[in-house]
Amino acid sequence: MGGKISPALLELHRLNHLVLSYNDFGGTRIPEFIGSIRALQLLDLSYSNFSGVVPPQLGNLTQLQTLDLGGNYGIRSGNLYWLSHLSSLSRLVLDHMNTSEDANSLWLHQVLSFPSLDTLSIGSCGITDITFERGLARVNSSTSSSLTTLDLSSNKLTSSTTLQWLLFNTSASLAYIGLSGNQFSGPIPDAFEKLFFLESLYLHDNMFEGQIPKSLGNLSLVDLDLSHNDMGGRLEDLFASASSKLMSSLYSLTLSHNHFTGSVPNLGKFQALTWLFLDNNKLITVETPTAGLSKLEHLDVSHNSLQGTLSETYFIGLSNLRYLDLSFNRLKLEFSKNWIPSFKSRLIYLANCKIGPSFHEWVQTQRGYVVNLDISNAGISDEAPQWLWNMSLGYLNLSHNQITGTIPDLSSTSIGIVDAGYNNLSGTVPSISPLIWVLQLSQNMFSGTINSLCPYAYCRISWLDLSNNQLTGTLPSDLRNMQASEILNVNYNNLSGEIPHSLGSLSKLKTIHLRGNGFYGELPSTLQGCPLLQQIDIGGNKLTGTIPPWLGEKYTDLAFLSLRQNRFYGVIPLEICDLTQIQVLDLSRNNLTGKIPECFDRFTALVDKNKTTTTKIEVRTVATDGYIDYAFVQWKGEESMYTNTLGLLKLIDLSSNRLVGSIPESFSSLKGLISLNLSRNSLTGRIIRGIGNMDMLEAVDLSRNQLSGEIPLGLGQLHFLAVLVLVNNNLTGEMPSSPTLQGFDPFLYAGNVGLCGLPLPLCPQDSLAPSSHTNNEETDDGLSFMQDFAISMAFGFIFGFWAVVGPLLLKRSWRIAFFNFWNVVGDWLYVTIAVFFKNFTRGC
């Protein structure tokens, strides 16, 4: 429902309940006349897209027991003095209301004074320590005795004093405390012993440190969430101090993303435990089986340092297990071949667990139940069984194993995500169903064509990665049935033909990888229909034509462009300078001519040294963490692959073309540039004076041009410079006095006849003849040294000769043994050589 709220409601004199929640009133203000419906006891306007200041006329509704304005993200508090008139309130919800305009008033104190207040939810209201403490400073132990629910989550609370006041001064009847998403730090106060009725405690997403307070072990908690903090200590100590009340009541325990150490303890006595999340800690062992946890449905111990072997005995009694995540540990799973687990899990994640070399048969017992299955990097070197593809999975990850065999036709399956990359699979790429979102088959041995990849009128595939296989033929000529595509990667195959014009119909495309194939022809102009592109890598093909100006005009988000090693010709268009977000521009190894444009200083991302981009593309799936883009870049003379650090790389490579003219002075504005390669062109003029301003440069290659003049002083002031190649230019003059420049190999300056000074030979003005007096002294010293050296050599030779020959002349037995030894050596050499030649002639 939308539109306007009619004032005709005023005619309903006995109206005591008004619920308009979950509608859309288009950002309009809450009508003031609602404050005149005096009989109202319940007013619920939550999640209805109201905005503006809440009308103070609502303070006239003195009979209100419930006021819910939560979820209206555009509303502001104004002055909340009117709340003091609503003393009959038992439930007040103001979530997402901006209260910063009234941060210094006592409205919180006034609300907490209401004798019947049961629920106060003021999450995401921008409340600070000042607002909170001004209220609690006036609250005595008898105030708000009826309060059972207090939610202050996602505010701006930081002070430990605020937390202590909360625990010591609010109602002992509290059953729910929500303080998540604030900025509390330090240890959690051990002050929960008076909160006898506390059932739910949410302190996650803060910066708490230290151990879990022991007083929590004496409560009857149902839900405890301390995740995403900096807490630590031995986990088994917490469970050892738990009371029988906690053992019988605890339903959900979430300690994820902390620093807990030790073991996953024996939890068999926690008979009500249903959700257990211990992931992303520093646990190292699993000591005992989980027998007794018959109600456990969710078990997540992923991303720890767990080691050892788990057998089927660990899972005895877990008949209700629906979610199992043991991934990213060092566990080995050894189950008997005929084991049939008692559970029927929907989600099974075993990445990095050692399962292989064979597939576990028990997995197929989950058919019809399991939806997500991850057995990546599990040491499997078996052939993919047929039953694996018949399990009606939604998500299957087999990547980073050594699995062999083929993948059957998937065109009639319900699977949504298939990741089988980095295996030894072969055969043809299977046809896919219209339900598949992700198909990742890179780094295998697939062959054949992909013309019939998607045989339906519409396929919702968003992520297609077939790179590093042995595919042949062309890309499908009609790609219009893949309108949801965001990622297309066919790098390093044997594909050929022209890039299909229909590729331009994929308007959601964010990255194109066609590198290392045999594509030819010109870039189709229809690619202008892909305005969201962030990365284009078409290097290593046979593409021709000029660089189209629309490359710079259409792609406002393009961060990576590689046309490397093709056959493009003509000038670099000025429009290329409109790529303000470009971080990697690689036009090397083409036939480009003309001058380098003067406008490269419009590359905003290269001007700003602090600018970085993310290489992660979010794919709309629940089972993947997103696509981490990567690229191949010529870096310091070698082709390297960048993934997670790609967003930090800033590079321009125009090498191996036929560019002329001088290096534009505008390059000096590129203060964020890390690598510059202009080698193997016909550039003339001087190295730009402002190169010293490019203080992030790590690699500079200007070799094999016709640059002249002196090396600028600024080049020696680049603190991060690790690679400098100036070979084969016409540079002259003395090398700047710089430890950086003088530390490079002289070979890197070779071919510059007029260049001198360290590390090259000294310049003429530095090699003047020293005085004759000095020469005479040096000559005398040299002659004296040579005489001493000759005498030492003579004595050494005479002593060494007689030390060996003398005993042979004087002692007959030594002489006989010496010559017998050489006779034996001679015989051995003769036999060895004779046998070798005989074998050699026989082999011929």
From TrEMBL:
SUPFAM superfamilies: L domain-like. Keywords: Cell membrane, Glycoprotein, Leucine-rich repeat, Membrane, Repeat, Signal, Transmembrane, Transmembrane helix. It is found in: Cell membrane. It comes from the Eukaryota. The lineage of its organism: Eukaryota, Viridiplantae, Streptophyta, Embryophyta, Tracheophyta. The chain crosses the membrane at residues 789-810, 817-837. The keyword Repeat applies. It holds the Pfam family LRR_8. GO terms for cellular component: plasma membrane. It comes from Cuscuta epithymum. This is Uncharacterized protein. Signal peptide: none annotated. Belongs to the RLP family.
